[in-house]
Amino acid sequence: xxxxxxxxxxxxxxxxxxxxxxxxxxxxxxxxxxxxxxxxxxxxxxxxxxxxxxxxxxxxxxxxxxxxxxxxxxxxxxxxxxxxxxxxxxxxxxxxxxxxxxxxxxxxxxxxxxxxxxxxxxxxxxxxxxxxxxxxxxxxxxxxxxxxxxxxxxxxxxxxxxxx
Length: 164
Prior knowledge:
- This protein is of the alpha+beta class.
- Helix content is 60%, strand content 13%.
- β3 (117-121) and β4 form a beta hairpin.
- α2 (48-69) runs antiparallel to α5 (93-112) and α4 packs across α5.
């Protein structure tokens, strides 16, 4: 007779979108109603290209901020004429640094934000925010679990009848 493993429900969600609280809420619902189901939560990573672009932008931001703070002109290193906006930034360091910091952070956030909230049980997809465009309600989530649980019970009953 085969030993039945406990089902595993996996949540893959966008950390930067603030879905961690929803994951915790759904995780508590699972533990409350189905204590035999293991729960795993992990970040839904952006595409490698977007992650790379966000990393490059972050490095450029740091280099630019350091150059401004120490009044260095990186353009002279490359034998390029200095753009007027950089000359303005050297004269208005505080404002320019804040602007660079906040604008680059918003671009980085945009690049790493996936908007995902994906739910699967034993690698069988139950819900995809990327496909539906919305998050499931508590009632929808519980209904999904009940449907899955009914399928498990049905399979277990069939296995019992087959073994007899």
